[in-house]
Design goal:
Chains C, D: Belongs to the dihydroorotate dehydrogenase family. Type 1 subfamily. Chains C, D: One of its GO terms (molecular function) is dihydroorotate dehydrogenase activity. Chains C, D: Catalyzes the conversion of dihydroorotate to orotate. Chains C, D: One of its GO terms (cellular component) is cytoplasm. The complex is a heterotetramer, with 2 copies of chain A and 2 copies of chain C. Chain A is globular, with a radius of gyration of 18 Å. By secondary structure, chain A is an alpha/beta fold. Chain A folds into 2 domains: about 100 residues, Beta Barrel (Elongation Factor Tu (Ef-tu), domain 3), CATH 2.40.30.10; about 110 residues, 3-Layer(aba) Sandwich (Rossmann fold). In chain A, the strands form 3 sheets. A 7-stranded antiparallel sheet of chain A has the order 4-3-7-1-2-6-5. Chain A has 8 helices and 15 strands. Chain C has a single domain, classed as Aldolase class I (TIM Barrel), CATH 3.20.20. Chain C has 11 helices and 16 strands. In chain C, the strands form 4 sheets. In chain C, strands 3-4-7-8-9-10-15-16 form an 8-stranded parallel beta barrel, surrounded by 6 helices. In chain C, strands 5-6-14-11 form a 4-stranded antiparallel sheet, with no helix packed on it. The relative contact order of chain C is 0.18. The chains are: A alpha/beta, C alpha/beta. The interface between A and C is large, with 44 and 53 residues. Bound molecules: flavin-adenine dinucleotide (2 copies), flavin mononucleotide (FMN) (2 copies) and FE2/S2 (inorganic) cluster (2 copies). One flavin-adenine dinucleotide binds next to strand 4, strand 6 and helix 3 of chain A. The site of one flavin-adenine dinucleotide (FAD) has 22 residues of chain A, from strand 4, strand 6 and helix 3.
Amino acid sequence: MTTFTPTHDVVAEAQAAGFFPPRHTVEITDARALADRVMRLTFRDPFIASHAKPAQFVNLFTHDDFMLMPRPFGVSEVEGDEVSVIFAVIGHGTEQLAQLKAGDTVDVLGPLGRGFNLKQDANYILVGGGLGVPPLICAAQKIASLAGSVATSVIGYRDERFAEEYVSRHTDRSWSITNAEGNVVDLLNQLETSGDLDVDGLKPVILSCGPLPMMKAVAAWAAKRGIPAQLSMEQRMGCGYGTCVLCTVDTVDGRLKVCTDGPVFTREQLGWGE
Amino acid sequence: MTTFTPTHDVVAEAQAAGFFPPRHTVEITDARALADRVMRLTFRDPFIASHAKPAQFVNLFTHDDFMLMPRPFGVSEVEGDEVSVIFAVIGHGTEQLAQLKAGDTVDVLGPLGRGFNLKQDANYILVGGGLGVPPLICAAQKIASLAGSVATSVIGYRDERFAEEYVSRHTDRSWSITNAEGNVVDLLNQLETSGDLDVDGLKPVILSCGPLPMMKAVAAWAAKRGIPAQLSMEQRMGCGYGTCVLCTVDTVDGRLKVCTDGPVFTREQLGWGE
Amino acid sequence: MSENATTNANDNHINIYEAHEWKHPTKVAGVTWKNPVGTASGTFQYAAVRWFYDVSELGAVSTKGCSPVPWEGNQSPRTAEGPASNLNAVGLQNPGVDHYLEDDLPKLKAAGALVVANVAGHCDDDYMQVVAKLADSTADMLEINVSCPNVTHGGMSVGTDPVALASLMDKLRPMTDKPLVVKLTPNVTDITVPARAAVEHGADALSMINTLLGMRLDIRTGEPIIANKTGGVSGPAVLPIGIAAVYRTRTALPDIPIIGIGGIDSGEKALEYLYAGANAVEVGAAALFDPVAPLRIARELDDLLDARPELAAKLAAGKTWR
Amino acid sequence: MSENATTNANDNHINIYEAHEWKHPTKVAGVTWKNPVGTASGTFQYAAVRWFYDVSELGAVSTKGCSPVPWEGNQSPRTAEGPASNLNAVGLQNPGVDHYLEDDLPKLKAAGALVVANVAGHCDDDYMQVVAKLADSTADMLEINVSCPNVTHGGMSVGTDPVALASLMDKLRPMTDKPLVVKLTPNVTDITVPARAAVEHGADALSMINTLLGMRLDIRTGEPIIANKTGGVSGPAVLPIGIAAVYRTRTALPDIPIIGIGGIDSGEKALEYLYAGANAVEVGAAALFDPVAPLRIARELDDLLDARPELAAKLAAGKTWR
Ligand SMILES: Cc1cc2nc3c(=O)[nH]c(=O)nc-3n(C[C@H](O)[C@H](O)[C@H](O)COP(=O)(O)OP(=O)(O)OC[C@H]3O[C@@H](n4cnc5c(N)ncnc54)[C@H](O)[C@@H]3O)c2cc1C
Ligand SMILES: Cc1cc2nc3c(=O)[nH]c(=O)nc-3n(C[C@H](O)[C@H](O)[C@H](O)COP(=O)(O)OP(=O)(O)OC[C@H]3O[C@@H](n4cnc5c(N)ncnc54)[C@H](O)[C@@H]3O)c2cc1C
Ligand SMILES: Cc1cc2nc3c(=O)[nH]c(=O)nc-3n(C[C@H](O)[C@H](O)[C@H](O)COP(=O)(O)O)c2cc1C
Ligand SMILES: Cc1cc2nc3c(=O)[nH]c(=O)nc-3n(C[C@H](O)[C@H](O)[C@H](O)COP(=O)(O)O)c2cc1C
Ligand code: FES
Ligand code: FES
């Protein structure tokens, strides 16, 4: 059953100031290829820049009227009033977005969804795979600004370390691995063995985003050790802001909306690794 | 019944050289407003420029995927390898075409249809109304290059003489009138009264394009005097090149296609003014 | 200006956040809407939309299909995209009529909305249970959805069978004095047949169209994208089909109020439905692409009606263009 | 690359004028097509298209609906535009079967085309007269159009009534050994019902979908744009509806050859139909926007099939993906 309680605190904030910004057009300020079929797009949007939290996402819209549905992407970095996303070219929508250049415009709605819960002082272990990395970059950036917490990143790539530069910009403790070398659970095991799960007495909390099998393995690994884990989910969406119930995920509380009940869920909610 | 005989001699010519050019993208070289909601658009297209005949038309396509149907426009002028059209902003398609600027691109198919028959030596009287003027400009331009013929233009405008400059560029004998002042039949009557229907011993042949009521009145006027009249028709189209039978006009020979059997029909074919 | 108004929310001259006096009301089955534009069921959640605009500004809001008990709907993925369209297979997930009466409805009424409560069911009994509970609620109208293509039992089958529909209406009609709107499916040979059955058995108004049966496959895998395999097509692509449904029904049934639905993403398209014979319209998929679409469309239409006093007067009097 | 392949004829890498060896044939009711892409009836005229490409390069050409005597069709305007779609109400204008046998068909055969002769009728007798004349013609297949929404008698009504369709097929089947393809309409509640009726009464293959009933009004006048008022919707917008029709029919009738039609404007969309269970496809409205679309799509599909040897092998053997 869907919860109808607003859980989207950014929205609540925005509402206090009037209404939430509707879909609007923004200017692309930077567009670059990070790897084969992986792009980073930056646009100027003061509202999103000042409100976005790690694992929140934005809906981008193509200029092609055949493709009206939103393309959701996690916010990967915020600098001043500029917001970046990093995405893989998958189908026609991302193909078209990949052709945008600085100076072009794109329509956007956001920030959307509930981000990671970073209220606790902790060693946040950012476990990402592939295109699950962008929200973790954002998390690393945020945690770096928090007094009581530190971040450790553990990233798996398919073949190329395309986001390494952005991850390591925001955290001193970063490890990565490609498919050919192993997987993120191998890295987590190394962290455990070397005693690096706790840092400066801070307990580990896992924040994870990536392919489903990876996240399930990470949740199981965390559950076995009693480590809290927050997992950022993906689902095909209709609206991205909670109006259509097209984006559900099965949880112990029933079918919840990825867009507004998530995208972040705890491993307990998902019933993973119990 | 539709005739299935190819009557489109430009196509035949093109075929001799290989195949006819399919829909393709061309560059806009000039775009200007001639009057309120009347635009002139020029694009570079060597094939169309070298093959288009007066009253032939081109299909333009919008960049908006909601509007896939062709927008047909008569060729109004050819200069070197540049082709111009003049059009009124009517609906969303022409609104979008009106936003094109020099340097933009547009998709085009053409030249299409059968143009005016200019084989006879004659005083071609070009009788146009409103947005029926563009093919007559093209006719004037063509006739100016023919040794044995002359052109006389008789143009009616709703309120503003937006194409005057282009018409008079190609003919010494040009008259125009706005709705407020009268109509083209008034001008034809004046020509008759002043003995200007024949010029240098050349008999008159009417070429007309404009609103249906105007063309019917002109055909009736011509029929009464036994003057030949060729009338360029409009109809909503599906393809513009003869494949769909969506563009018919009722003639004494049955329902013919405006796009390939026309757009030019004789008054006898249309059974007007008999 | 593009034909696709949704992608140009910023280009148009209407500022939906400016205070506005509605000029052109409509009347549907005796109920006055402050303007002819409502939201379509399933694409409006008060909890989601209230951050974007004041819901009392709309002509009406049709709420998500409501069943006797909570339904969990279909598995994900529930959506795919078509050219100029959306496909959905929610399967009527909703928290049930009791939750609706305790939570959504009172909140909407407190916010000043005119509420069309959309009723879902797998069988006659389901519909009856929901209508019984809504009969003396604060809902302004009830919209009986006999046209959902995404549930296995009931739903669409009632809407495609005029005999079953007549029998359902015979049961529901005596249960309430509230205006009953019957929502019809385009997935039939002749929509005027169920339309007539509904009207002859007590419908106060009709709404149409619900979604068309459709499907997409992923050519990377060769498999259906939606877990339910097929889904319902809506959005701009279905506009001409909705217009034809309204026009033909209006021709067959000159007096029944009709709410036109399907592919509306601009005031112009809403106007086209009114010319086809609708008394009002509902906006569905456009709200997925642009949260404020229903209100923007209402504002655009309000201005378009200024130049059409004859049509506007008819609507205000509960009559239609045709 | 845009989702809308038609507007990007120049962007893609295929040069349709380059000589090409077709790699992936298909077989429909025993007839081998050199590739799985044909033209759809009503959007192909040899006289118009031969200037643009060599018609023998296509898998097949389905010719305009052919009636016993010349038909003049509907009044103009016959067309309007929808979002990502075309509406047409030609009303089956055609010069009749005698003209077809004397002119179109011999020219097409001389040009090397594989010809699917589309048959139109207002009543069983019409269809019988045409089939009788085509029975020993050079046409390769006959496509019985029981699905045109734009004629007042017969046409679509046969396609929506399984009993009438069965009875028509019982009359036509004994008249010819040529493969009979029955072309079905999506304007029904369940397309598998007429599909089954056709197959049980002798159809060798099915083609689907014909156009959907639709309409546009001009908001400048408030009146219908098309003289016939309603028309048939086709083009990209109808893709998901055609895919669902093919998929559901394939599921209901695992062995019958199916020609998928509706909204195809790229090799990818043709491929999607093959994954849905079609043996071949026909391209309609896309040819209105781009004369060479059918050939371009055939070329795109031929390349896409290179990476899908299992599907390609099935098609070549007259089998399907599902
Ligand atoms: C909350 C969230 C955050 C995301 N963040 C990122 C990110 O940071 N970087 C990144 O590369 N990708 C991210 N994705 C996935 C991304 O949205 C899809 O890859 C993208 O929408 C594909 O679009 P397309 O047009 O290329 O693909 P197509 O398959 O052509 O798209 C067709 C439709 O399916 C939807 N769709 C297809 N794949 C997915 C998917 N995996 N998830 C959701 N919708 C999908 C599209 O949005 C579109 O509506 C995220 C998804 C979600 C739900
Ligand atoms: C052979 C021919 C030559 C023409 N030459 C000219 C010209 O030189 N200058 C000029 O201003 N106009 C000309 N027209 C008319 C012009 O094609 C239309 O005004 C234009 O297509 C309107 O497009 P829209 O999108 O603005 O209108 P909309 O009404 O939004 O268009 C919707 C659909 O209807 C079609 N349509 C609408 N009006 C007409 C019409 N009058 N004729 C044909 N199709 C129409 C459109 O092409 C489109 O497919 C010509 C038409 C034909 C058939
Ligand atoms: C995500 C989604 C959910 C829907 N849920 C319902 C519903 O619960 N009840 C109902 O009657 N119609 C439902 N519909 C149908 C819409 O109300 C509307 O009839 C249809 O989408 C056509 O309108 P549109 O083209 O404006 O979207 C739903 C549509 C969508 C897109
Ligand atoms: C202008 C036009 C004329 C058509 N005429 C016929 C016809 O004569 N016989 C027929 O079976 N289908 C006819 N059709 C339907 C098409 O063959 C096809 O089934 C339909 O358009 C869907 O395919 P599309 O989306 O690729 O256009 C016609 C379609 C159009 C657009
Ligand atoms: S995408 Fe609409 S509710 Fe989540
Ligand atoms: S527009 Fe297609 S035949 Fe004339």
